[in-house]
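Design a sequence for this backbone.
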C-alpha cells in the first residue's frame, strides 16, 4: 500500500491526513507528483516509451516521474523517480514550477545531463527510450507523446 501526504491547493501540507494510492482523493486535497524533463547538454531530449500495460501504454513520455511517497519532499521525489526510471543519478535539478490537475499537484524539474548511454528501463514502466531534438519533440502529437505539461518551461531554461 502506497501512502501519500495530503496538500491543499496552495501546496500547504495538511497535517494529520494521509492519502492512499487507489482510493478516492477527497475534494480540495491533492497528492504530490513530480515530473523531470531530461535534456542532454547537446540539446536533445530523452523520451521513454510506456509499458503497454500502463496508462498511456505504447506512447512516449517526455518526463521521468511519479508520486511522492509519504514524507518525501518534491526534490527527493524527483531525484528518486529520475534514478528509478532512467538510471540517471543527478546531484541537482532545475525547478520549473508547479500546477494543479485532477487531485494532484505536479512539480516540474529539468535535468541537464552529459550522459546518453546506459539509460535504464524500469521494469513494468518503460520498454524503450530515445533521444530526440527539440523540433521533433515539439512536433509530436498527443497520440504519440504524453506528459508535456512542463516542456515549454524546460525548453526556456
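Sequence:
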Amino acid at each position: 500500500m502506497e501512502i501519500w501526504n495530503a496538500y491543499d491547493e496552495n501546496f500547504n501540507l495538511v497535517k494529520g491526513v494521509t492519502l492512499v494510492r487507489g482510493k478516492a482523493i477527497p475534494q480540495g486535497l491533492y497528492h504530490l507528483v513530480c515530473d523531470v524533463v531530461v535534456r542532454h547538454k547537446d540539446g536533445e531530449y530523452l523520451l521513454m516509451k510506456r509499458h503497454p500495460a500502463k496508462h498511456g501504454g505504447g506512447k512516449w513520455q517526455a518526463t521521468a516521474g511519479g508520486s511522492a511517497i509519504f514524507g518525501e519532499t518534491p526534490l527527493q521525489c524527483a531525484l528518486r523517480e529520475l534514478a528509478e526510471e532512467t538510471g540517471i543519478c543527478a546531484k541537482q535539478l532545475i525547478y520549473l514550477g508547479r500546477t494543479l490537475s485532477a487531485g494532484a499537484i505536479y512539480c516540474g524539474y529539468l535535468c541537464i545531463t552529459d550522459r546518453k548511454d546506459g539509460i535504464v528501463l524500469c521494469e513494468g514502466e518503460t520498454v524503450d527510450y530515445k533521444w530526440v531534438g527539440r523540433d521533433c519533440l515539439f512536433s509530436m502529437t498527443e497520440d504519440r507523446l504524453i506528459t508535456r505539461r512542463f516542456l515549454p518551461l524546460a525548453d526556456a531554461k
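The first strand starts at residue 3 and ends at 7.
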